[in-house]
Design brief:
Elements: E1 3-7, H1 16-32, H2 37-58, E2 61-65, E3 76-81, E4 89-90, E5 93-94, H3 95-114, E6 118-123, E7 127-129, H4 132-137, H5 147-156, E8 164-169, H6 179-189, E9 193-197, E10 205-213, E11 217-218, E12 223-233, E13 241-247, E14 250-257, E15 264-273, E16 278-287, E17 294-298, E18 300-307, E19 313-319, H7 324-333, E20 339-348, E21 351-355, H8 371-374, E22 379-383, H9 392-403, E23 408-412, H10 426-430, E24 433-435, E25 451-452, H11 454-457, H12 470-475, E26 486-489, E27 494-504, E28 507-517, E29 520-525, H13 532-535, H14 541-557, E30 563-567, E31 576-584, H15 588-592, E32 596-603, E33 609-617, E34 623-629, E35 633-640, E36 646-654, H16 668-677, E37 681-684, H17 691-708, E38 711-714, H18 719-739
Parallel strand pairs: 3-6, 3-8, 8-9, 9-37, 10-17, 11-18, 19-20, 19-22, 22-23, 23-29
Antiparallel strand pairs: 1-2, 2-38, 4-5, 6-7, 10-12, 12-15, 13-14, 13-16, 16-18, 20-21, 24-26, 25-27, 27-28, 28-29, 30-31, 31-34, 32-33, 32-35, 35-36
Helix pairs in contact: 1-2, 2-18, 3-17, 5-6, 7-14
Length: 742
């Protein structure tokens, strides 16, 4: 039976006895007065019509409908917490791994045995559907936990309505915007919430070495800063601990940090000086203090630094085949002894032609395969290369050379240089443009002039004439006939040249562009046969030579630490003054011009200038300044010279306190509150050792809620019942009046 009429007060039917006696006595009196039997029966029917509905209502009848609560196909919705607090390790495994193991080995098999379908959702600050593979691959890293939002999503996104919502979580819930929506959904659907709590009730003190920062390139015999960014969470007092600085695996310095108490994000710095040139890896190792319950999430971080005196700038020119470009670029650099070019030309699949190497064994196997081989060079030029010419490992090494060591990378024209096969490669990631899927080379029958952008005309790289403006000098260049097509510039890239007519996906085709990539710079020059400029009848070879010298110095000198930006040891958080030190390093130029004016600007994420001031710098005489970081976000400190040319930048990240790890104890109170409002259950995972018993308790609670919350609809409280009562009473009164009865 799916529906039935139930009387909540069945004893109300006993009132029929006195009512029947009263009606019988009234009929006997009417008979004694000589009233006919037909009239007595008529009055009895009218009185029964009035009293029977009242008698029926006295028993409080309800209509009970079970059809709407049929559970034959309704699932249990499982909520899996993927927030960062679930990444905390206890007893050798993280909370998330423990929850996943509990789900796989105990909960899912028990539900499968009982035929109850399960639907899984992953949640942190957001919620998404997940299958078994997604659950296994997930790394808990969510910055906030919105348990209420996950409950609401489970109820609103499930058809039919779920039998129950089961959450596997540590109870951390630091978002409450969806509380009302979740509460309303639980009450409206009569769905019980079952909370399983993972983790320890005492919580964990956490200490983490987030990262290490240092300049990518430093001159020898010059002091520089290596900063370790540390993070401490929870509120227990933290004793002092040691930090070790390792140079290529050997301990060179030690310092003690005194963190105090509470959640903190702060810097601890080492000062280091190197006497000789070379590439080194500096590692900071955190030595955790002896404190019960302390969890050290990360204790080791490294950063590469290149020590190089700026006596010369070495350039590695790699070409897929012998071209004229290398010859004329070599001629352009001949008058600048500080720039040394080394050439590599692939002559066959297994052989290369080397030019201007510094030792017999240098680059004997072709393009470098390790960062150590590439470190002596400041710039790498790639010309006419096919995707097969550089392995995935060499592309990755090239990206590290640019991003970590501050090297320059230039991709210039050649029949195979801009092949569409480079699309989505590691090389494309470090370049300022995206490769085109179309035919790479344009029609050679349409000559064109290079069209410089305003950014290029204002850049010293393009100042190629002493007696005229850059715009006039570049307008007199000869025409070119071929160029490679690329799709678009990446966000933040500088576009320097465009085609005057050819339209691409985002406007006129890009012919030259550059961008900062990590600590270094990358650029592309799409024009083919650029060497024809030097041979043109009316061109000035000196302008060609000057352009290449300035371009290579720009690509290579950006990593020089002529000016260094240091952060003092300090705590970093929103709403604070960030203290910064600007220091000019000694160089030959500083001997004749020791005092120079520089400009310091601080930009926020939207590139808005928050602070700007002029400073006078002398070698090794640091200047301090500070700026106010009102909000969390990424800030950039930019130092420019008196021509407003950037000489040094440093990003500074200001984070909100990690709310996920401020309180790492398991919060069962949150789970109990959600369970209490939905007639559900909440218990610690260690309190349910038997999965079958757990599922039995969950199913029992579901059945209890179903029976307690069945659809109750009162019967009889409507207009028809009232009409029937009034009709009986009025009919009785009218009949007695018509017959002259009192």
């Amino acid at each position: 039976m799916t529906a039935a009429i139930v009387f909540e007060f069945p004893l109300g039917w006993l009132a029929a006895i006195p009512v029947s006696a009263a009606l019988a006595f009234a009929a006997w009196q009417q008979h004694q007065r000589g009233l006919s039997r037909s009239r007595i029966a008529y009055l009895a029917v009218l009185r029964l019509a009035a009293f029977l509905p009242l008698l029926f209502l006295a028993t409080r009848p309800i209509w009970l409908n079970r059809a709407a609560l049929s559970a034959s196909s309704r699932p249990v919705v499982l909520l899996m917490d993927r927030s960062e607090s679930m990444s905390l390790a206890e007893n050798g495994t993280t909370r998330y791994e423990e929850a996943l193991q509990f789900l796989r080995q105990r909960l899912l098999p028990a539900f499968k045995a009982t035929g109850v379908p399960v639907r899984a959702l992953l949640f942190d600050e957001s919620t998404e559907l997940a299958d078994g593979r997604r659950l296994a691959a997930t790394k808990p890293s969510g910055k906030r936990t919105n348990l209420a939002g996950a409950i609401a999503q489970a109820l609103e996104g499930s058809t039919p309505q779920p039998l129950a919502v089961i959450a596997l979580t540590d109870g951390s819930a630091n978002e409450d915007a969806d509380n009302s929506r979740a509460l309303g959904g639980l009450l409206a659907t009569h769905t019980p919430f079952i909370g399983l709590g993972f983790g320890s009730d005492q919580g964990l003190n956490t200490l983490s070495l987030r990262r290490v920062e240092a300049p990518s390139t430093v001159a020898s015999k010059t002091s520089f800063s290596i900063s370790a960014r540390l993070e401490m969470m929870d509120t227990e007092p933290m004793p002092a601990f040691d930090l070790l600085l390792l140079r290529d695996g050997q301990v060179v310095q030690k310092r003690t940090a005194n963190p105090g108490k509470g959640a903190r994000d702060w810097l601890e710095s080492f000062r280091q000086t190197e006497e000789t040139q070379g590439a080194h890896t500096y590692t900071v190792q955190l030595v955790p203090p002896e404190q019960p319950g302390l969890k050290c999430l990360n204790a080791l971080a490294s950063v590469p630094v290149r020590i190089a005196d700026q006596k010369e700038l070495r350039l590695l020119y790699m070409q897929g085949a012998l071209t004229w470009d290398y010859k004329f670029i070599s001629l352009a650099l001949h008058s600048d002894p500080a720039i040394k070019i080394t050439g590599l030309a692939r002559t066959s699949h297994n052989s290369v032609f080397r030019q201007n190497v510094e030792s017999a064994g240098e680059l004997v196997n072709g393009f470098p395969t390790s960062l150590a081989e590439l470190a002596p060079f400041r710039i790498v030029v790639l010309s006419n290369l096919r995707p097969s010419d550089l392995s995935a490992g060499q592309q990755e090494m090239l990206a590290r050379f640019c991003g970590e060591l501050g090297g320059g990378v230039l991709l210039i024209g050649g029949p195979a240089t801009f092949d569409s096969s480079w699309k989505n490669s590691r090389l494309e990631q470090l370049l300022p443009v995206t490769f085109s899927s179309e035919d790479a080379l344009a029609d050679p029958e349409r000559p064109f002039h290079l069209q410089l952008t305003q950014e290029a005309l204002e850049n010293p790289v393009f100042q190629i004439a002493e007696d005229r403006s850059s715009a006039e000098a570049w307008a007199q260049l000869p025409t070119f006939s071929r160029y490679a097509r690329v799709d678009a510039a990446k966000p933040g890239a500088l576009v320097w040249m465009r085609h005057p007519a050819d339209q691409g996906p985002e406007g006129k085709r890009i012919l030259m562009a550059a961008q900062r990539y990590g600590a270094g710079l990358s650029a592309v020059l799409c024009a083919q046969n650029f060497w024809r400029w030097r041979l043109a009848k009316d061109s000035n070879p000196g302008q060609f030579d000057r352009f290449w010298r300035q371009l290579f110095r720009w690509l290579g000198d950006t990593a020089r630490q002529d000016v260094a930006i240091h952060l003092a040891d300090q705590e970093l958080h929103p709403g604070m003054d960030v203290h910064v030190t600007i220091e000019k390093q000694p160089s030959p130029a500083s001997l004749t011009n020791s005092n120079q004016t520089f400009f310091v600007r601080v930009l926020n994420e939207a590139k808005q200038v928050l602070h700007e001031e002029a400073i006078a710098l002398e070698p090794l005489q640091p200047v301090d300044f500070s700026f106010y970081a009102q909000k969390a976000g990424d800030y950039t400190v930019l130092v420019t010279d008196n021509l407003k040319t950037p000489v040094c930048t440093r990003p500074i990240e200001i984070r909100e306190p990690n709310i996920e790890l401020q309180n790492t104890a398991r919060n069962m109170e949150t789970l109990r509150q959600w369970a209490s409002v939905s007639d559900g259950l909440a218990f610690k995972v260690e309190d349910c050792p038997d999965a079958a018993d757990l599922v039995s308790r969950i199913k029992g609670k579901i059945q209890e809620v179903r029976h307690a919350k069945m659809v109750h609809r009162p019967i009889g409280l409507n207009g028809w019942t009232l009409t029937l009562v009034l009709a009986g009473l009025c009919g009785d009164w009218l009949a007695r009046k018509h017959w002259g009865l009192r």
